[in-house]
Design a protein that fits this description.
- By secondary structure, the chain is of the alpha/beta class.
- It is built from eight helices and 15 strands.
- The longest helix is centred in the first third of the chain and has 18 residues.
- It is elongated and about 60 Å long.
- It starts with a strand and ends in an 8-residue tail after the last helix.
């Protein structure tokens, strides 16, 4: 898991980094061993390393110059809709601004003096981040075994050769696994919904829905069957509310 911490005040940055590391060691000792925290005092250097999918969590100070945390988040959202963003702030006055870029919460500075609020927010988002670490082992038709992160699966259906086809963020692959086996692996993952016979879609890539389709970020239309329509749409609305109540604008 990769976390980026951005604050133009060096002392605040180091204080937040040390607090976060200590908290992880105390409360998530096993997971902490595989967590990488990168720190940045300049937005330009952060953008130089940031790529879509590079980080699982961004912790951004709101009061920075020349770009503040909200402006940085707006730029990020043009590239990556799903990465989790939490704001660092000395004041709660700008919290509502954060929800416009779909932030999952905020940390009040200094963290050590607001440990209870930090724990409440972090304990909410961290299990969701761990979900993003899940991987599926599959054998690609005509190739070998690979490991596919759940978070990289846009949707799955059956191809023209009747193989299970996984549509990933960067390619599509046909795999030696039945749809039923695949469904059983992912049915308890709250990101996925079956909206049509033998079509399972990752709701984190849905931009909006209409009467008959889910529309993905890349414009792909995934059909919603009449039989599954009510359950699928309810699950999608629940997903949006779980991410952020402000996300209901997409409905």
């Amino acid at each position: 898991m990769n976390i980026a911490l951005v604050d133009d005040q060096f002392e605040d940055l180091r204080s937040a980094e040390n607090f976060l590391k200590a908290y992880l060691r105390e409360h998530f000792s096993e997971e902490a061993k595989s967590i990488c925290i990168d720190t940045f005092t300049e937005a330009e250097k952060f953008f130089g390393k940031f790529e879509s999918g590079e980080y699982d969590l961004l912790i951004l100070d709101i009061f920075m110059k020349p770009l503040n945390g909200i402006q940085i988040a707006e730029i990020i959202r043009r590239q990556n809709r799903n990465v989790a963003i939490i704001f660092l702030t000395n004041s709660e006055d700008y919290i509502l601004e954060g929800y416009k870029v779909f932030a999952v919460g905020y940390f009040l500075k200094p963290l050590a003096e607001n440990a209870e609020q930090f724990s409440k927010t972090f304990s909410y988002i961290f299990p969701k981040l761990l979900e993003n670490q899940k991987k599926l082992s599959v054998r690609v038709i005509g190739d070998g075994e690979i490991s596919v992160p759940y978070k990289n699966i846009l949707y799955a259906d059956i191809d023209e050769r009747h193989y299970l086809c996984l549509h990933l963020t960067n390619k599509k692959i046909s795999v030696a696994m039945t749809y039923d086996e695949f469904f059983k692996e992912l049915e308890n993952d709250l990101r996925f919904v079956e909206c049509y016979h033998r079509i399972l879609v990752n709701m984190e890539f849905i931009k909006q829905m209409d009467e008959e389709d889910f529309i993905l970020n890349d414009g792909t239309r995934i059909p919603i069957s009449q039989r599954k329509s009510k359950a699928a749409k309810l699950k999608y609305m629940s997903h949006l509310m779980a991410i952020n109540p402000a996300n209901t604008w997409q409905l």
